[in-house]
Design brief:
Helix 1 (14-25) packs antiparallel against helix 2, helix 1 (14-25) crosses helix 3 (59-70) and helix 2 (33-44) crosses helix 11 (256-272). With 333 residues, the protein is an alpha/beta fold. The relative contact order is 0.15. The radius of gyration is 21 Å and the shape is globular. The chain has helices spanning 14-25, 33-44, 59-70, 85-89, 123-126, 130-135, 170-174, 187-199, 214-225, 231-246, 256-272, 280-291, 299-303, 308-318, 326-329, and strands at 2-4, 7-9, 49-52, 74-78, 90-95, 100-105, 112-116, 137-140, 143-146, 152-157, 178-181, 250-252, 296-297. The chain folds into two domains: 2-217, P-loop containing nucleotide triphosphate hydrolases (Rossmann fold), CATH 3.40.50; 228-329, Helicase, Ruva Protein, domain 3. InterPro entries: AAA+_ATPase, ATPase_AAA-3, CbbQ/NirQ/NorQ/GpvN, ChlI/MoxR_AAA_lid, P-loop_NTPase.
Length: 333
């Protein structure tokens, strides 16, 4: 256990970390359980997350809630067409009193960076995040600086905006471990939203407290690294990846980075459910958030109004799931 201001926090238990983050965020968040799950898996797997949804479905709020519940330093970047790469990474500023240039670090130097409406920024500015997301470092005027750990990028985008936006290039999309669509709430969830905000009109992220510590997140990451992935599970991942590359409706399938996302995500998903081994259901549950945004569809698919999610569903239905003895996995080192 670790302690902050008299409050004890679990250390090293991924399931406890997830349960505590979920319980705290649910004080404000209604529904969107999948979003918190994917955010936690990405955080514990050193991944990044792209949240997509129409305006008003709490995309930015979800990221803010995670930051507050996890005790991470949080920075939000409002992406606009006029924002420059240096506005994200930082630059050297001349200080007249000293007559010297001083490094002014940009908002990317935080544990959790929210790139709000990322597709409003130009491709040049979007590319400022490429090095940070992969190498976890930033190069400013020839000097390479390490970013803090944990480090995670959560980006949001609005799928219905057609003007003044720039579609994310494949290299940028591939750096997001998951893409999750935040849907409109069900009627009962929206009714609860009305009641909750009728009782507490100022309810928001400021109302929740820290549920875990950065130390517990780092410890949970080390625990997740030891989760067992059996050879049939790895073969299942490779079969899905190969099928995405050979599909008749794709020009380009999943990259090796996506292959690793399957393995790392399955480990984290197993761990937050209290298992030290992955099962086929862990892979199946992650196919859509891992695959859909990485697929590059061909002209035939576009003419036939075939969506990436349609291809993913077909892959899940057609790729054979390994027949495994789960009881044996529980005793495998």
């Amino acid at each position: 256990m670790s302690e902050i201001d008299g409050t004890e926090f679990s250390v090293g238990d991924p399931q406890a970390v997830y349960d505590e983050i979920r319980a705290e965020t649910e004080r404000v968040l209604i529904g969107n359980d999948e979003a918190i799950e994917y955010l936690t898996i990405a955080l514990l797997s050193r991944g990044h997350l792209l949240l997509e949804g129409v305006p008003g479905v709490a995309k930015t709020t979800i990221a803010n809630l995670l930051a507050r519940a996890s005790g991470l330093e949080y920075q939000r970047i409002q992406m606009t067409p006029d924002i420059l790469p240096a506005d994200i990474t930082g630059t050297h500023v001349f200080r007249e009193p000293t007559g010297e240039f001083e490094l002014q670090r940009g908002p990317v130097f935080a544990n959790l960076v929210v790139a709000d409406e990322i597709n409003r920024a130009t491709p040049k500015t979007q590319s400022a995040l490429l090095e940070a997301m992969q190498e976890r470092s930033v190069t400013i005027e020839g000097e390479t600086l390490a970013l803090p750990e944990p480090f995670m990028v959560v980006a949001t985008q609005n799928p219905i905006e057609m003007e003044g936006v720039f579609e994310l290039p494949e290299a940028q999309r591939d750096r997001f471990m998951f893409k999750h669509t935040v849907d409109l709430p069900e009627r009962d969830e929206e009714a609860e939203l009305l009641d909750r905000f009728d009782a507490e009109p100022t309810l928001g992220p400021d109302e929740i407290g820290q549920a875990v510590t950065p130390e517990s997140i780092q410890s949970a990451r080390r625990t997740i690294a030891d989760v067992y992935v059996a050879d049939p599970i790895k073969e299942y991942i490779l079969d899905l990846v190969a099928a995405s590359r050979d599909h008749t409706h794709t020009d380009h399938g999943v990259s090796p980075r996506g292959t690793l996302a399957f393995q790392n995500g399955a480990k984290a998903r197993a761990a937050i459910r209290g298992r030290d081994y992955a099962i086929p259901d862990d892979i199946k549950a992650l196919t859509k958030p891992i695959l859909a945004h990485r697929l590059v569809l061909n002209t035939e698919a576009e003419l036939g109004d075939v969506r990436a999610t349609d291809v993913v569903e077909e892959l899940v239905d057609t790729v054979a799931v390994p027949d495994m003895d789960i009881a044996n996995l529980q005793t495998t080192p």
